[in-house]
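A.,

Following up on our hallway conversation. Structure tokens first:
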């Protein structure tokens, strides 16, 4: 597994965060620019994921991709949208991070 595959996967996850934020701002598809950005980001994220999948195991890559998106969106929700960061929510985000790190370390 090459390091570039992990970089593609990280980029795919980051773009997934952009997608979620854009779709939140699209206000149920009623605002054109955020809607277009959300769709474009979704396509780009999937494209970058396919690049990562050339060398990474499918299960690991998909789990890491979704984890990056989930944790990233949760943190953006707190920072940009005033969502709560309760101890339970923080603990659950920590579990997602721990699982993702475990997959990365164990898969090499």
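Then the amino acids I'd put at each of the 108 positions:
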């Amino acid at each position: 597994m090459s390091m570039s595959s992990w970089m593609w996967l990280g980029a795919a996850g980051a773009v997934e965060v952009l997608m979620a934020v854009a779709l939140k701002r699209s206000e149920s598809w009623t605002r054109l620019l955020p809607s277009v950005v959300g769709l474009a980001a979704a396509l780009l994220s999937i494209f970058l994921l396919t690049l990562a999948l050339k060398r990474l195991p499918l299960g690991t890559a998909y789990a890491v991709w979704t984890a990056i998106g989930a944790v990233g969106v949760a943190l953006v929700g707190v920072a940009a949208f005033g969502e709560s960061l309760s101890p339970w929510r923080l603990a659950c985000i920590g579990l997602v991070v721990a699982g993702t790190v475990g997959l990365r370390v164990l898969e090499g």
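The helical segments are 3-25, 32-52, 58-81, 87-107. Curious whether your intuition agrees with the design.

B.
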